[in-house]
Specification:
Elements lengths: L1 H25 L1 H6 L6 H25 L2 H54 L5 H82 L4 H13 L6 E5 L2 E2 L8 H9 L4 E2 L6 E3 L1 H8 L1
Parallel strand pairs: 1-4
Antiparallel strand pairs: 1-2, 3-4
Helix pairs in contact: 3-5, 4-5
Length: about 280
Amino acid sequence: MAKKEQLPKKEKKTTSTRKKEVIEDTSSVQNQAEGKELSIEQKLTNLYKLQSILSEIDKIKTLRGELPYEVQDLEDEVAGLATRIDKYQADLKELETIIGQQRIKITDSGALVEKYQSQLDNVRNNREFDSLSKEIEFQGLEVELAEKKIKEFTFEVKNLTEEIEKSKHLHEERQADLKSKKEELNEIISETKIQEEQLREKAKQIETTIEPRLLTAFKRIRKSARNGLAVVSIERGACGGCFNKIPPQRQLDIKLRKKTIVCEHCGRIIIDPDLANAENA
């Protein structure tokens, strides 16, 4: 009876063990993504792998240099010039409308002057004569004022037309520069696009093996680091990021790989150089 009672337990243990082995063999990435049974050494290894891949992506970006920023600046400048030209043209149209209105005013004033002058021949008293004379004088002043405004606005039209031509010429030059820079950038991107996509895919896969809290800290450190290095190894007894000396006891703790240790000076995660060499091999 004792043997019969033990058989189901033994069978259950064997099935469980086999199931565990299958899961470990076929779903290790999933288990790591869920944060199951990851040692500190594995976490550090995954972080270093992620850092290495992101550093490769940074090298590709460095290869592109300042081109993306130059393209962006040129795009902004071209858009700004187009907006400026549109505004100049709107102002020019408005000036031409005003000049047209002043010319109409001159025509109307001239007609009134002729009308009042014809009425002077039929005045019956000095009061009517003075009134008509004042109207003729007033319309004469209106004509002079309109002509003065036309002269001023015509000068503005001339200057504005010149500015429009200059802006159009500059706009064409910048568009040509933009086209050239875009072609150059696209050529570099096409050469490195596949490699970058592969690296980004690898980075995404590794990120799933790192617990969210640690990944967030990693990204925060990397963002604040000037060279993008969030994980560094010990180099000649110093931090590989800021090169400040690391105390011997702290170096020993890092080599033991029992806990995540950050640099007291720069905040980077420090790993054992042997671990880094093993991954680079």
